[in-house]
Specification:
Layout lengths: L2 E5 L3 H17 L4 E5 L4 H12 L8 E5 L1 E3 L9 H10 L18 H15 L1 E2 L5 E2 L2 E5 L21 E5 L6 E5 L1 H6 L3 E5 L5 H8 L6 H8 L3 E5 L5
Parallel strand pairs: 1-11, 2-3, 2-7, 7-10, 10-11
Antiparallel strand pairs: 4-9, 5-6, 8-9
Bound molecules: 6-phosphogluconic acid.
6-phosphogluconic acid binds next to strand 4.
């Protein structure tokens, strides 16, 4: 079995448990690299972490993003802003521990800079992919994770790449499949009944959704849900 599925009664309980596990996971490492996601469930995750974290909880943490919309960092659609407002500023995370994707510098520069930063900080595997300690992924109703969408057949070794997705805003920069495969831990926060079909399809042995591709590329992935798959 390449995943563990944990069921929670609601989104708040899911977020509270993910927050508690994240804080525990950081205790064991002298440097902790984490990639954050966008969407709705991270808002609850960040609030739960900010409420529970001790002042030094993130002293060794470096923050990256699994994907970012190509909008200014001040834009309401920015995944960086989502985290900055609810987590990074709340916990006074020093700027040198926050490695946002510099979308305002243009896609080509932002991709190159994000790749250089993540590879500067994280351990690297034999293929030069960053070995992130933890990657958070939301799940789209179509089975997308990060900004890796169905029908994206690009088979690139790039750590990050720019894509056009069906979920607005369309232009995004995303970690590629190799980096998601290389991470020490990937936690999928699949919240909302609307994700049921996508999760069920992704868990099928012959699943071909973006999440299925991630699951099949890894020995283990944690999945947190707030709905029954039955
Ligand atoms: C993004 C996300 C995306 C998101 C899923 C789930 O930038 O949009 O990274 O992958 O996590 O679409 O979003 P919800 O949690 O809002 O359903």
């Amino acid at each position: 079995m390449n995943h563990t599925l944990s069921r929670f009664p609601n989104a708040e309980a899911l977020a509270a448990e993910a927050a508690a596990r994240w804080l525990r996971a950081m205790d064991q490492r002298d440097q902790f690299t984490v990639a954050l996601s966008g969407g709705r469930i991270p808002k609850l995750l960040y609030a739960a972490v900010a409420a529970e974290a001790s002042p030094k909880a993130f002293a060794n943490a470096h923050f990256f993003w699994g994907d970012e919309r190509v909008v200014p960092p001040t834009d309401e659609e920015s995944n960086f802003k989502l985290a900055a407002v609810r987590l990074l500023l709340a916990l006074k995370i020093p700027e040198d521990q926050v490695h946002r994707i510099l979308t305002e510098r243009g896609e080509a520069f932002a991709v190159q800079h994000a790749e250089a930063e993540i590879c500067r900080i994280a351990d690297l595997d034999d293929d030069g992919q960053p070995i992130l300690d933890l990657v958070f992924l939301g799940l789209g109703e179509d089975g997308h994770v990060a900004s890796l969408f169905p029908g994206d057949t690009v088979d690139s070794p790039s750590v990050y790449r720019a894509v056009t997705g069906p979920k607005p805003p369309p232009r995004r920069i995303t970690l590629g499949y190799p980096a998601l495969a290389a991470a020490r831990a990937v936690w999928v926060l699949a919240s909302g009944e609307g994700k049921k079909d996508a999760l069920r399809a992704s868990l099928a042995p012959d699943g071909d959704t973006p999440l299925a591709r991630v699951l099949q590329s890894r020995t283990h992935t944690e999945i947190f849900t707030d709905f029954d798959l039955a």
